[in-house]
C-alpha cells in the first residue's frame, strides 16, 4: 500500500470517526429507534462533517499562530493539493502532525457535542438482558449460587440451580441450563425431584413465562 493510500485511509477515519464516536456515546443515553441504513449513515456523516470543520478551523488557527513565530509545523494545504503524494512524501512529519491533531480535535468536538446535548440527561443505558443483571451482575458475592423457579408455557414449573445461561438480548435466542437439585412441578401442582441420573435441564428463553431468582451462599467451611 503506497504512502498516499495510507493517508487516504487515515483521512477517511478522520472524517468518519467523530460521527461514529458520537453515535456510540448517544446509544448510552437513549434507546435507538429503528431506522434505515441511509438515515444512520447520514447522521454519522453530518456529525463528522461538523466536527471535522471545527478541527479544520483549529488547524488554521494553529498554523497562523505558528507562522507568527516563524515556525511551520503544518503542511501547506495548497501545495499539498497541487503536488499530491510527492508533497506528502517530502513533508511526512508536518502532514502527520496535522492528521493526528485534526483527528484529536474532531474527536474532542464529537465528545463535547455529546456532553452538551445530554447535559441534562443523567441516565445511562446498558445493553444487557435482565437475565444477565440478575444471574451474573447483581450477585451478593462472587461465590453465590443462583437458584431459579422457571414457569414455562405449558404450565410446568422447573426448580434448579443455574449452571449456565446465554445472556443474549433477544429472548428467543436465550437458553438457561439448570443443574441439581432439580425439581419439576406439573400443571396440576404435583412436585417431584428428578432422579440423580439426570444432571442438566436446558430451557429455552422463548418457553419461559416467568423467572424467579433466589441467591444462596455456600455453607461456611468448618474449622474442626
Describe this structure in words.
The relative contact order is 0.11. The chain has 6 helices and 6 strands. Strands 1, 2, 3, 4, 5 and 6 form a 6-stranded antiparallel sheet that branches. It is an alpha+beta fold and 224 residues long. A hairpin with a 5-residue loop joins strand 3 and strand 4. 46% of the residues lie in helices and 20% in strands.
Overall form: rod-shaped
Cα-based radius of gyration, to the nearest Å: 29 Å
Unreliable stretches covering 5 or more consecutive residues = 220-224
- Kindly report how far apart the N and C termini lie: 70 Å
Give the proportion of residues in helices.
40-55%
Give the strand content. 15-25%
Report the major sheet: 6 strands, antiparallel
Average of per-residue pLDDT values: 80
Give the structural class. alpha+beta
Q: Could you state the order of secondary-structure elements as H and E? A: HHHHHHEEEEEE
Number of continuous helical runs: 6
Number of strands: 6
Topology at a glance:
Layout lengths: L2 H24 L10 H32 L8 H7 L1 H6 L1 H26 L12 H8 L7 E8 L4 E9 L9 E11 L5 E3 L7 E4 L3 E9 L8
Antiparallel strand pairs: 1-2, 1-6, 2-3, 3-4, 3-5
Helix pairs in contact: 1-2, 1-5, 2-5
Amino acid at each position: 500500500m503506497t504512502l498516499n493510500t495510507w493517508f487516504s485511509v487515515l483521512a477517511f477515519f478522520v472524517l468518519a470517526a467523530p460521527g461514529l464516536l458520537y453515535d456510540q456515546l448517544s446509544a448510552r443515553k437513549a434507546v435507538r429507534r429503528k431506522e434505515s441504513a441511509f438515515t444512520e449513515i447520514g447522521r454519522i456523516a453530518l456529525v463528522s462533517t461538523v466536527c471535522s470543520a471545527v478541527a479544520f478551523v483549529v488547524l488554521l488557527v494553529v498554523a497562523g499562530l505558528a507562522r507568527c513565530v516563524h515556525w511551520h509545523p503544518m503542511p501547506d494545504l495548497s501545495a499539498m493539493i497541487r503536488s499530491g503524494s510527492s508533497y506528502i512524501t517530502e513533508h511526512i512529519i508536518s502532514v502527520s502532525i496535522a492528521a493526528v491533531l485534526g483527528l484529536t480535535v474532531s474527536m474532542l468536538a464529537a465528545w463535547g457535542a455529546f456532553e452538551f446535548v445530554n447535559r441534562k440527561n443523567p441516565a445511562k443505558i446498558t445493553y444487557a438482558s435482565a437475565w444477565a443483571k440478575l444471574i451474573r451482575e447483581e450477585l451478593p458475592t462472587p461465590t453465590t449460587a443462583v437458584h431459579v423457579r422457571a414457569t414455562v408455557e405449558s404450565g410446568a414449573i422447573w426448580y434448579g440451580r443455574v449452571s449456565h445461561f446465554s445472556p443474549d438480548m433477544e429472548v428467543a435466542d436465550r437458553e438457561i441450563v439448570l443443574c441439581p437439585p432439580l425439581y419439576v412441578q406439573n400443571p396440576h401442582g404435583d412436585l417431584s425431584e428428578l432422579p440423580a441420573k439426570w444432571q442438566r435441564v436446558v430451557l429455552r428463553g422463548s418457553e419461559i413465562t416467568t423467572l424467579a431468582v433466589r441467591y444462596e451462599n455456600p455453607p461456611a467451611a468448618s474449622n474442626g
